[in-house]
Amino acid sequence: MRTRLRRRNRLRLATGLLFAASLSFLAGMTDVVGFLLAGDFVSFMSGNTTRLAIALSSGEGGAILRLGLVIATFVVGNAFGVLFMRWTRGSQPGLLALVGLLALVPLLFRDPSHGVPALVFAMGALNAALEEVDGQALGVTYVSGALSRFGRGLGRFLLGHHTKGWWTQIVPWTGMLSGALTGALVTQRSGGAAILVVAGVALGLALASLVVPQSWRRIWLAKRPFRRETHGGAPLR
């Protein structure tokens, strides 16, 4: 019985990490495609914040407005992702399908760069699809925090403090790197048509996630946004 339980837990952990890596792959690909089409990051808001600060210092009104709107759109996308997961009782397949549809919006414009805000909104919403695996908080559209946690975990490991799961933080970074590389190669060869690849990956992940037991997918949501809580903290179904 214990052996079976351990195997199940290992399989659940491996599946969660694969899902996290896949989401980061999608984010990395989308970020590069959006950047190459419009010149702005669509998921890397640290970079856009730095660029906004530079624009503010030099008084570039157009850049200030554009980057400010990009960051605001990303924030609104995150808020919508939480609301969507609440409305759908934690449906990652539904959220990923929506991301895939939003990824097609740039193709509605003669100049695909005009539709890139839809990608920014989608990447914000994507963060609600997974928040933790095996108790470890994981970001899927940004990796600075993951690299920081990995580095600190490595330092503690070298000091002899074996913190559980610190190594999992490298998983999103690996996914984002491979996704960004794929996005760059596809965009260089196909231009705006790379949007179709982004949408295809998102919709493919939506279908693949249906194979994962819903009970597993729900434990990857740190705040369980599909439940309401009383003032005492007890969840209401």
UniProtKB/TrEMBL annotation:
<feature type="transmembrane region" description="Helical">
    <location>
        <begin position="92"/>
        <end position="109"/>
    </location>
</feature>
<feature type="transmembrane region" description="Helical">
    <location>
        <begin position="166"/>
        <end position="186"/>
    </location>
</feature>
<keyword id="KW-1133">Transmembrane helix</keyword>
<feature type="transmembrane region" description="Helical">
    <location>
        <begin position="193"/>
        <end position="212"/>
    </location>
</feature>
<protein>
    <recommendedName>
        <fullName>DUF1275 domain-containing protein</fullName>
    </recommendedName>
</protein>
<keyword id="KW-0812">Transmembrane</keyword>
<keyword id="KW-0472">Membrane</keyword>
<feature type="transmembrane region" description="Helical">
    <location>
        <begin position="62"/>
        <end position="85"/>
    </location>
</feature>
<dbReference type="InterPro" id="IPR010699">
    <property type="entry name" value="DUF1275"/>
</dbReference>
<dbReference type="Pfam" id="PF06912">
    <property type="entry name" value="DUF1275"/>
</dbReference>
